[in-house]
Amino acid sequence: MRFVRYDDDRLGLLTDDAGVVDLTDHLDLSSTDPLVEYMAGDFDASEYEDADPDHDVGDVTLESPVRRPGKVIAAPLNYEAHIEEAISDKEITTDEWFSIEDKGYFLKAPSSVIGPEENIVIPFNDRRIDHEVELGFVMGETTKDVDNDTAWENIFGYTVLLDISVRGDQDRSNRKSYDTFTVIGPAVVTPDEIDDPQNLDLSLAVNGETRQVANTSDMVYTCADVVQYASIGATLDVGDVITTGTPEGVGPLADGDVVDAKIEDVGSLSIDVEERDVSFASVDVQKHGQE
């Protein structure tokens, strides 16, 4: 099944003919984060997979499938070719190469999450802002100290995710948590719709120019590996979003760009980029404590 959130927090099921079945009405959902309500409750949407759609997908506004995840957990440098790219381009990271096992994951602010029909907003006109296409997924069970098999079982579904990044010396969580810097959608796709999440083609283009092309088989740590590691230190809650790192080909975005991202069997999105007329150099960082 392919779940979407649309039109001010309604939960829908995408049909094969580009329709949307309104699950909010059918299942009597009431939450402003209806996919989390669905996952946490005793609901079953499978009987509506063949129902007549209530809307055409082109007539609704698609929002991020999860409105406000409790956590967004991200795996850094999880493709070998991107590791080599980062080592050679110190604008990407000033760190030496490291693994998730060495230094762990990082967190992104839940407030950075937007849907595919909003705009990416570049916060500064004098900093490099890069695109990163990633396979993301949503946790469907409370998860703590699990093994690899249980980690796979606790993933509710997969989604396209753009991890937008300011390059520089600041901590990753700072540089990747600006508003609009986590694009999720258009749908969350359940595992039964995907033959193998570790063998999916993914790509990203900017203004029609292909920049990133890879396959999830190139990951260093699998989806379940990331869940297993993350669950050692933190309880993963229903609705938490985890993203698995980007392949090689990251590059800068500019005002007016159009970003197209696609992951095999999962979906595709197209999103516009706009830039604020603000320079990082002019930002007034105030300090009133001890010198």
Report on the structure:
This protein has 291 residues and is of the alpha+beta class. The protein is 16% helix and 32% strand. It is built from 7 helices and 20 strands. The chain has helices spanning 23-27, 34-40, 80-88, 100-103, 148-153, 172-175, 223-233; strands at 2-6, 10-14, 19-22, 55-56, 62-63, 72-74, 106-108, 113-114, 119-122, 129-131, 133-139, 155-163, 165-166, 182-189, 201-206, 209-215, 241-243, 251-252, 258-263, 267-275. The strands form 3 sheets. Strands 1, 2, 3, 4, 5, 6, 7, 8, 11, 12, 14 and 17 form a 12-stranded mixed β-sheet that branches. Strands 9-20-19-15-16 form a 5-stranded mixed β-sheet, with no helix packed on it. The longest helix has 11 residues, at 223-233. The termini are far apart. The model has no long low-confidence stretch (mean pLDDT 93).
Number of helical stretches of at least 4 residues: 7
Structural class: alpha+beta
Elements, N to C (H/E):
EEEHHEEEHHEEEEEHEEHEEEHEEEE
Low-confidence stretches: none
Strand content: 25-35%
Mean pLDDT: 93
Overall spatial form? globular
Tally of extended strands?
20
**What integer value in Å does the Rg equal?**
19 Å
Can you summarize the main beta sheet? 12 strands, mixed
Name the helicity range. Answer: 10-25%
What is the CA-CA span between the terminal residues?
A: 57 Å
Keywords: Hydrolase, Metal-binding
Domain Fumarylacetoacetase-like C-terminal: 71-273
Protein name: Fumarylacetoacetate hydrolase family protein
InterPro entries: Fumarylacetoacetase-like_C (IPR011234), Fumarylacetoacetase_C_sf (IPR036663)
